[in-house]
Design goal:
The protein has a six-stranded mixed sheet, with helices on both faces. It has a four-stranded parallel sheet with strand order 2-1-3-4, with helices on both faces. Helices cover 41% and strands 20% of the residues. Helix 3 links the parallel strand 3 (82-85) and strand 4. The longest helix has 40 residues, at 165-204. Helix 1 (29-42) runs parallel beside helix 4 (108-119), helix 4 runs antiparallel to helix 5 and helix 5 packs antiparallel against helix 8. It contains 15 helices and 13 strands.
């Protein structure tokens, strides 16, 4: 699906709920509503929703022959051009369902990859999406080439050991995709090296990093705009931000920090994307502070917060200092009790309510003894001025009897210039 103003695809959504599936694999009314929002993000229109309850998935059609016929009729009546499943489908199930329903069939993973391909703007983002798409495609090649495999070799009409053109094409495609995946991984490794260089420079300058994380559409971009005036487009749709954006934030008059906005998380996030986006999300591991932005106006906020918690842990950032930022508090009904605690801040990123308190909390957690000082350096200690320019924030220099320097210094450089600090 393409992101155009004209709605291109009419979509029927299908989900299966079964006791043999894991909780996160099952479809529910809530996950199907979220899938409908994803369809809208991708430029489609949901024509109807079918939720099937079965003791176990059907190995061939996933939902069973009877329900499959029902969905086919539904598609004909609504003139639907696509069916999207809320569950993951095997390559053979995708093929069988496409033939049985007579329309294109996708699963949730395929839809999310399609949205990511539309939204990625930077070279890094496009590399990550392309890698995820190839990893998703690789196990599905067999199903794509089954019709060719029957043409020769496997039919028994060819010599023993001969290979049909389908099998040859399948192996050729596999080799090609493996080469593409290796190349993309090398390119992403280059991105990581650049990031490491930038990170070392920030660490040398003692600039702390604050990472915004949260469920998709929780309001991270709106908060970044509110904090830094970044002017990032912030729309009310899922996966509006895919490329990491970093801006400088003046936390206080003695402290600056880099704030990074990250891609939103979502339940049933394709594992290919978790892997592919590690070049972006590895920033979390090196952050000094996480702001977990939670849409408290959503009835599903607790489930959404748990999804984010799990992915943060998977990315190795579970032990980092964190503030839970309960956003959209202005949308709550009057009298509803907000969560509270020393690591919790209720705000409205849209109106600015509570943002001053959040800045105070950020400053407290990032404070590592940074101070603004006035130094009187003897001229024979002029080399220290070079060190101050490298390792501190020099605000003013006046040459008189001594070199008078006003600078914001971290603990490391303070130790070196302690003897020259004016009382």
């Amino acid at each position: 699906m393409q992101d155009t103003k004209e709605i291109r695809d009419k979509v029927v959504l299908v989900g299966l709920n079964s006791p043999v599936l894991k909780r996160e694999e099952n479809a529910t009314e809530e996950t199907l509503e979220e899938l409908s929002a994803l369809v809208e993000t991708a430029g489609g229109e949901t024509m109807g929703i079918v939720l099937q309850n079965r003791p176990s998935p059907d190995s061939r059609t996933f939902i069973g022959e009877g329900k499959c016929a029902e969905v086919k009729l539904y598609c004909e009546n609504t003139e639907a051009t696509m069916v999207i499943f809320d569950n993951d489908l095997s390559p053979s199930q995708l093929r069988v369902l496409t033939e049985a329903l007579g329309v294109q069939v996708l699963d949730r993973c395929g839809l999310i990859l399609d949205i990511f391909a539309q939204r990625a703007r930077t070279r890094e983002g496009r590399l990550q999406v392309e890698l995820a798409q190839y990893q998703y495609l690789l196990p599905r090649l067999t199903g794509m080439w089954t019709h060719l495999e029957r043409q020769a070799g496997t039919s028994g009409s060819g010599p023993i050991g001969s290979k049909g053109p389908g099998e040859t094409q399948l192996e050729t495609d596999r080799r090609h995709i493996h080469r593409k995946i290796d190349k993309l991984r090398d390119d992403l490794e280059d991105v990581r090296r650049v990031r490491n260089t930038q990170r070392r420079q920030r660490q040398k300058n003692e600039i702390p990093v604050v990472a915004l994380v949260g469920y998709t559409n929780a309001g991270k971009s709106t908060l970044l705009n509110q904090l830094t005036g970044a002017g990032i487009p912030a729309n009310n749709r899922l996966f509006d931000t895919l490329d990491t954006t970093s801006r400088l934030l003046s936390v206080s008059d003695t402290m600056d920090a880099v704030v990074s906005d990250t891609v939103g998380f979502i339940r049933k996030l394709p594992h290919q994307l978790v892997e592919a986006f590690k070049a972006t999300l590895e920033e979390l591991e090196y952050a000094d502070l996480l702001l977990h932005v939670i849409d408290v106006s959503s009835p599903e906020w607790q489930v959404q917060a748990q999804v984010v918690e799990s992915l943060i842990a998977e990315l190795g950032a579970g032990e980092l200092p964190r503030i839970d930022v309960f956003n959209k508090s202005d949308c709550l009904p009057a009298g509803e009790i907000m969560p509270h605690g020393e690591d919790i801040c209720a705000i409205s990123a849209k109106t600015g309510q509570g943002v001053d308190k959040l800045l105070q909390m950020i400053a407290q957690r990032l404070d590592k003894g940074t101070r603004r000082v006035v130094l009187h350096l003897p001229y024979e200690q002029g080399g220290l001025l070079d060190a101050l320019y490298r390792e501190a924030k020099v605000e003013a220099v006046d040459y008189g009897e001594t070199i008078a320097v006003t600078a914001v210094c971290g603990p490391r450089i303070l130790g070196r210039v302690q003897a020259f600090i004016a009382p």
